[in-house]
Specification:
Helix content is 35%, strand content 18%. The protein has one domain (2-107): Rossmann fold (3-Layer(aba) Sandwich). The protein has 108 residues and is an alpha/beta fold. Helix 1 packs across helix 4.
Length: 108
């Protein structure tokens, strides 16, 4: 799975994704301006086949055909659990753009 991490995703998740099998990760800061709007991020993800990883539930209302993985910042999920959930989600979906899931959720 190709994961585009939103601006406020902690480094611990980015590092865990980078170390994981079958996950390619990049950040908004690496491909867009740091202050890119949600619509711009979603459009980039859709054009370049990335799934957005974020704690920003505003992405649920952004139009487009981008995949979305939402985590709850207050729950502070363990990075390994998030990686496991994402790997299971990747196996369950045929197309990344169809993904709209909370992680780790019931995937661990």
């Amino acid at each position: 799975m190709r994961i585009l991490c939103d601006q406020n995703v902690p480094a611990k998740y980015i590092e865990a994704f980078d170390d994981a099998d079958n996950i390619t990760v990049t950040t908004v800061e690496s491909v867009l301006q740091h202050d890119a709007a949600d619509r711009e991020i979603a459009a980039y993800a859709e054009r370049h086949n990335w799934v957005v990883f974020t704690n920003d539930d505003d992405f649920f209302v952004v139009d487009g055909d981008h995949g979305l993985l939402l985590y709850d910042q207050l729950d502070d999920p363990v990075p390994g659990d998030v990686v496991t959930a994402i790997q299971r989600i990747a196996e369950a979906y045929h197309t990344q753009s169809e993904i709209t899931e909370s992680v780790p959720g019931n995937w661990v």
